[in-house]
Design goal:
single chain; alpha/beta; Rossmann fold; 8-stranded mixed sheet; 3-stranded mixed sheet; 13 strands
């Protein structure tokens, strides 16, 4: 049996290595990936009335296209807000206006909602550093989405977005990790996974 500290250390090492790989990706490759990811998400989320999503940083897949592309869905889009000193994500309705927030991440300027607002979303598009084929997601490392998903509605579709080489066979996992049901990659598009809740 693996000790929880060992799992945490393995996740941290893997996260650091994958982030470094992301920073090394040429800007044109990131732009091409962003367009492909946006197209796949729009197809996969067609018909969704409320989606909770995120604003990718400059090295994450989707940067420069998301969340603006979601306006084509005609859905209500919720984006996260990280308040100082608050361990839980708050949410705001995306009005198309964004400003830098905590950790340098872009946040919406729309009406602020509480942590439970994610429970209104039929689909949640999550940031990830890697995803494995069983749906285990390796997040950014702050635990914000692990805490946020406690408030997600039962049966909500959880979708992670990664680069092609970040969809891997297996990732270290902990009991609190919530599996995703779909992974979106630039080349593979929308791919259903055998997720469990």
């Amino acid at each position: 049996m693996t000790h929880p500290d060992e799992v945490g250390a393995a996740k941290a090492d893997l996260r650091a290595r994958l982030r470094e790989q992301r920073r090394a990706r040429p800007a044109p490759d990131r732009a091409t990936a962003a367009a492909a990811v946006a197209t796949a998400l729009l197809r996969g989320l067609a018909g969704v009335r409320t989606v909770a999503a995120f604003c990718p940083d400059e090295f994450e897949p989707g940067h420069g296209r998301l969340p603006a592309a979601f306006t084509q869905l005609g859905a209500r889009v919720l984006l996260p807000v990280v308040a100082d000193g608050d361990p839980e994500l708050r949410w705001a309705v995306d009005t198309g206006r964004l400003a830098p927030g905590r950790f340098g991440l872009m946040e919406p300027l729309g009406p602020r909602l509480g942590p439970t607002a994610i429970g209104t979303a039929e689909a949640v598009v999550l940031p990830a550093v890697a995803v494995d084929r069983s749906g285990v997601r390796l997040g950014r490392g702050g635990g914000f989405y692990d805490r946020a998903l406690v408030h997600a509605r039962p049966g909500a579709l959880l979708v992670a977005v990664v680069y092609d080489d970040e969809l891997v066979e297996e990732l270290p996992t902990e009991p609190h990790d919530r599996r995703v049901g779909v992974v979106v990659t630039p080349s593979g598009g929308w791919q259903a996974l055998p997720a469990s809740t």
